[in-house]
Amino acid sequence: MNKFFRKIRQKLLVENRFNKYMLYAIGEIVLVVIGILIALQINNWNEEIKKVKEEETLISQIISDLENNKNELIDLRKRLEINKKGIDSLLNRLQSKNYDLKVTLFLSYSTRKIYFKNSDFGYKMMQNSTTQLISNTNVLKKIVNLYDDDLKKVSTREEVMHNYIDDFQKDFINKYFRKSPYKMNVKINEFDKVSSDLFEPINFMDLSKNLEFINRLHQLKKTLEIRLFFSEKVLSNLNQVLLKMK
Description:
By secondary structure, the chain is mainly alpha-helical. The protein has helices spanning 2-14, 18-96, 102-110, 121-128, 137-176, 204-208, 211-245; strands at residues 177-183, 197-201. The protein has one domain (2-245). A two-stranded antiparallel sheet has the order 1-2. Residues 59-97 form a coiled coil.
């Protein structure tokens, strides 16, 4: 192509047709500029298409993660309710001074550690990106707040409750309970830490009069209720983010 244009220019010069040569040269420059602009526009279109596809992939992953977290939070509430029923049932037995083998099961449920598994693969992809892949700044802000604030607090409430359970077991299980000959084969969730060992009171009547033990059970229940309330709040916020993204 360059050889073709060069021959035309040389022919015009040889024929001493300078004006036509200048017009032709200018026209050639214009064509080159137009070609460059078209190439740049095509490149911009390709980059824009690439960015849109990356955003769609990221949003799809985050939606999938949030759906997993939604199901996990719903399941978490159910498991916390079981813990709460265990504490209430144990307190009722202590108040009525009515002992049966279920007391060992109620204690196990009361001190069961419940774990929340946070799905954050898409959010980490977004954090590691060198560009802002999500164009909707309002949605972006809600996603960041959900992961950096709400879901982090879910983990914090989990840690608080588990530390309280550890202290409760250390202060009371070794002192006032012994291993039961029975085992528990029930496991509510694969992430929950549930011992198959059951513990029975050494002296149930003495335990029913132990105000420290009873008060600590009430405190454990309160800690659980706070975690339950907060998980419901986060679930509500999560649902709002999902509605914005779909």
